[in-house]
Every structure is written in C-alpha cells, then in structure tokens.
Amino acid sequence: MKKLILSVLLATSAVPVAALPAMAAPAAQPWADRSLDAAARADLLVKAMTFDEKIQMVHGYFPPLAKPAKKMGMIPSAGHIPGIPRLGIPTLRESDASLGVANQIEQRKGDTATALPAGLATAATFSPELARAGGVMIGAEARAKTFNILLAGGVNLTRDPWNGRNFEYLGEDPLLAGVLGGEAIAGVESNHIVSTVKHYVLNSQETGRHVLDARIGEQALRESDLLAFQIAIERGRPGSVMCAYNKINGHYACEQDALLNGVLKGDWKYPGWVMSDWGAVHSTEKAALSGLDQQSGQELDKAIYFDKPLRAAIKAGRVPQARLDDMVRRILTGVIASGLMDDPVPATPQPIPLDDHADVAQAVAEKGIVLLKNEGELLPLARTARKVVLIGAHADVGVLSGGGSSQVRSTGGAPVEIPLTEGEAASFARVTWHASSPLKAIKAALPGADVRYVDGKDPAAAAAAARDADLAIVFAWQWQTEAQDTETIALPDDQDALIDAVAAANGKTLVVLETGGPVLMPWIGKVPAVLQAWYPGQRGGEAIANILTGAVNPSGRLPITFPASASQAPRPEPVGLAQLKAMQAAKAAGATSNHGVSVGVESFPVDYQEGADVGYRWYEKTGQKPLFPFGHGLSYTRFTYGKPEATGGAAPTVSIDVTNSGARAGDDVVQVYVQGGADAPTWRLAGFARVSIDPGRTQRVTIPLECRTFARFDTAQRGWVVDGGPRRFAIGRTAIDHVAEGTITLAADRMQP
C-alpha cells in the first residue's frame, strides 16, 4: 500500500516546467515567451526593470523583525522579497524546510505541517526514490501554504559526530549525500517552487559558526564537501545556493570569490543565484564582487548592505552596474527555471492531503531505521509476547525531534515541549516531541499483550518493572539542535546507568536510540539488540512498532560511522568550545544577541586534517575500528551475493546477483567501493543500489560507478583525472565488510571541474 501511495504522489506532483504549454508572449512582455530558456527570459526582464526595482530584488526582509511586516503582507516566516506586479515577478515568500515546512516556536499560530524524519534517516534509506518523495511532499505543502522558496537541500558532510546539525544532513559520504540531496531538491522543485542547496560550504560545526575559519586544501575540498554539492546541483538543479556563516581559508563563505565566482559560477556554470544565510553578510562591495547575489534576512545582519550601501557603491563605480544586473538576472533565472513565474503559488492556503503525506514520512522512517544489533534473533518481537515494558524518553506520548530552523510543528501537535533558557538556540528552538506514541502503536500491534510504560527516571524502579517482561525496551535519547553542538556524544541524564540496570534485570533488553547521530554505547555488550531510530518524524511511533513486530523488515544502513570512543574522531570535541564558554561566562550578566547571532567570539581556525578522508575513510586511514561502520545495518532475512562482474572503460559498472536466502521478503543495499589512486588509496563508495527481493529469489543488479569518487582533482590543470589501468573494487555489506572483491580496468580520462 505504501509503495502505491508513494508512486501516486510522485506521479501527481506538479508538471515539469518543460511540459507546460507554450504561450505566445504579449508584445509588451517578451519575457513571457516560454519558448525561450530561463536565462534569456530573465535577461529580457532585467532590461525592463528600473534601478529601484533591481535593488528591491537583491535584499530580503526577515518578517519577525521587519518594520513594515504588516503593511507589506508578510507571512511570519524566514523571508520576504516583494514582487513587481507590473512585470509579473512574484513576491518571494521563503520558509525553512529541511524536514518539512517549518514553523519554529509557532510563529503562525495553529499552522502545522508534515514532519519527515531526520535527514540522516533519509540518508539511511539509501533510496533516491524516497528522498525525492520527501521533497515532493514538502514542496507540495509549501505551495499549498503559499510559500514559493524553500530553504531546504542540506548536504553538508558529517565531519564530526557531535555537530548539532548532523541530523538535518545526509551523512559523511559525498556520493550518498549528493545523490539523495539532489533528488530531494528535484522533488521540491517539481511543485514549481524554488529549493536551495545549503550551506555552501564547510558549515560543519555549530560552535562559533559565525566566525570560525574552516581550513582545508583545494584538492581535499573538491574531493569531499564540494563533490557532494556538485552532484546535488547536477541532479536537483536548485534555483538557489545558500552560502554559509563560516569563513573558508580566511574569507567569509558569502565573500569567498574562489568558491562563488570561481567554482560555483565558473567551473560548474551554475546559472541560479547565491543567497546568504540569515546573518551571514559582512560587507557590500566585497560580497557583491565575490559572487553574493542576495542578502537574506537583512535584519539579522549588522547593516542592510544591499540597499543604500549598494546603491552608493554602484553610483560611485565601485560595484559595476553590470554586476547588479547579473545579480537580478540570476535570481529571475532560478525563479523562471523552477516554473514559479509561469505557475505562481495560490493566493490563499489550499487543502493538503495530510494522511497521504504522513504515509510518506512513515515510509522514510521505516526504511531508514537501522537494526544495529540483534543477538539470538531477539527481534522481531514474537506475537506470543505477553508482557512488554517500555522505558524512558517520553515513549508513552511521542518521539523526539531535532531542533533549530528545521523544526516542524507537526500535524498532531507537540505533547512535550521544553524551552531553552540560554544560548544562541534559545530564541528559535525548543526540545520537542512529535505526537506519535510508541506505547500506543505497540499496544495496537500486540493487542493480546500487556504493554506498559515507566518513565525511567529511577533506574531501580525501571529494572523492577522490566524484570519479568518478555521484552524490556529502553528508549534512549539525545537532543541536538542548530546553533549548538553537543559537548559529548555520551547519552545525557545518566541513561547509560538506566540501560545497565534494566539489562542486568532482564536479559531480553532492547535499546531504541532516538538521536541525531552517533552516541557512545558502553553497555553494548550487555544488551542483545539495538535499534537506531534517529528522529523518526511524526509517524515515528508507528514506524518503530512495525519494525519491532516484524510488520516491516528493517533495511536501513548507517550513512555515518559510529565511533567506539570520542577519541577515534578527528576532533574529540567541538573546536572553539572553550572560547565560547569563556564568552558566555563573561557576558552572563546582560548579554544580548541579534536573534541568535554570536556576540563577542573571536574568529578561530578549524583545521580539517583529515582532508578528503571524511568519515569511514578517516577510520581506514588511521587504522581504527569503529563501533559500527558506515553502511552497516541488519535485516530479518539473509542476502547472499554471487560473483561480481565489472565493465571498465570510461563508464564503468559492476553487476552482481543478489539472493534473498531467508524466509522473509526484504530490502538490501548493495554497496560498491573502489580504491582511490596511489596518492589516496582509501576505499570510497562509488555506487549503490537498494533492491527489494522476495524470499528464495535472485535479482541481477547493475550499478554504474561515479568516476569522480575515485578520481583525483588536479588543481594545476583544474579538472578531474582518472588514471587508467586496473583498480580494486569491492562489494561491501559495510565500508569495511567486503564480501567480494575484484579488479576493474579503467580508461584514462579527464573531466571538467
């Protein structure tokens, strides 16, 4: 049924712009001619605009702080750029939307939306189709709510396990993040609205995010974070790219000429526009000349740099008039290419098929939950179970959500909502649970069982309640949010002690982790089963119940490495944390901030010593064994592989027979790794495929390989180089568990940068 719902949703999304009927343009409006490409139409529009109209397009209001908000008809949201009715240019209404149409701290009273699981859950599906379905769903809801620009498409790579925004993103591998990010963007834009891709680039930690200087070499950056963005842009064709808060190699991301003009607009020929993150602009002339096209959320910056100061700079000749024209042309190109200009969003809110959209969220959760451990086949929970005890994490009423700008006020409400009392996140984040009760869902799935809940605050009481249960399920949690990193990846609130106590009382103890990334598991040897549920979205309780009872066969795979100890990671704690704490202590009395923008923290360097060897490549390079490797995930069935066959040349592929040798239907994720060249020989994910196979059946899988994942970037010649000759490849159940290896002969090749 879910498969049918997803296919219908994808099939009925907005018609691609190329399929819109051609219309002859009125003589007075040549830019309305749909036979012209988006850039040509945008150029005609720019020529018809006044200087004031152009300036109006390149800076946007932040409605919560904007003075004329009511007069201009702004929706309480992330951003507002007034339209130009005489030219048919629509008002641009922007919403945060990584995991759904956001409504942090309920700016719009009573307005709820469908909440997808964490981005890491989508990544764990290894499914481009599900990533696209999530984008289609979010885009449809945004359009129905009259928003037409979504600040979605987060593809920043996980470099540190404690990063507060890891949960929003798509893991540590550039191919996986790029492919799934691109598909999510394409899904959003299928609704004829604009999606961004963000945060360009190296927005890899939240501590000091407004001032830190991310340092890395060009080749390493090209082969890691930039490759993720490049693949996402190629697949998704987002209308806009959002530049980040941080500095990169000494320059703010929104003033980084080499990355904005050089890489993005030059090498990649990106036609759309670069918008700033909210509070990420620091200048007028340098930013404009370096490639920033639009100042977003202007009230969060120290000045409105792209209004009066830009006017003055253009009139004085310090910024060419041609640069302003290019800024506006790029904005209009993104708007037109998305279909928004020809198919404007409705003027008033429209009905939303909430049940169908909730099915999408549940499907992503079910396919993204990862079974980490299952000794003695404790799961699936037998339907003969008579007593099940759930412990902790408010599992009686809901499931945890990540915080920050991606926070969705979900359909069904928030049964638990805890405000923050300090820190940058306090102005726009709350510790929130979605109203999807695992207790209620498990009771429904096991109608004959005694299923009860204890809060877990007293480990001894929890152990006593669990002692005679057929299964004790400890729900463990760690909340993460934008604007702050977790200081440790250990579970908070003495949950390790709780798990120890319950496991000592009952040998059939399962731990369900609701976390935004890896956590330490000192109790891993004491419990037979562990389920990684991430932040599972507004139907998370139902998804968890279906996995536990076997109604759904688990099939998620880790998109991120779980370290055995914090010391295994390139950086064991957030860089700059001591500086941040010192500033907070010094300003504890009367400290203020501009809607969360850090005040008083000096710039500090973050040296990415691992370079391109992010995540699992770092563990291989340093010879460390993680707790759970990238790609890991168990099933209730078994898959066996035949002998792989490789086709080399300039478009290499690997084919293999996959057999479901168990008794249940299930999904497998076939992972193909290729070794880098002699200068960088670590294994790299070069292709993957998710397949559904009935028991006893065999399916032939052919996987094309992305050559840039194992090529090297030549900074002198400015291009990708594939060294010809034999290269090792492997079929892996994980990044380190290779079930078959072989040799593929590659054709020497050079590719555009």
TrEMBL record:
The UniProt record lists the keyword Signal: yes
Span of the signal peptide: 1-24
InterPro entries in the record: Cellulose_deg_GH3, Fn3-like, GH, Glyco_hydro_3_C, Glyco_hydro_3_C_sf, Glyco_hydro_3_N, Glyco_hydro_3_N_sf, Ig-like_fold
A GO MF term: hydrolase activity, hydrolyzing O-glycosyl compounds
Residue ranges occupied by any Fibronectin type III-like domain in the UniProt entry: 668-735
GO terms under biological process: carbohydrate metabolic process
Annotated Pfam families: Fn3-like (PF14310), Glyco_hydro_3 (PF00933), Glyco_hydro_3_C (PF01915)
Highest taxon listed in the record's lineage: Bacteria
Keywords: Hydrolase, Signal
Similarity comment: family membership: Belongs to the glycosyl hydrolase 3 family.
Name the record gives this protein: Glycosyl hydrolase
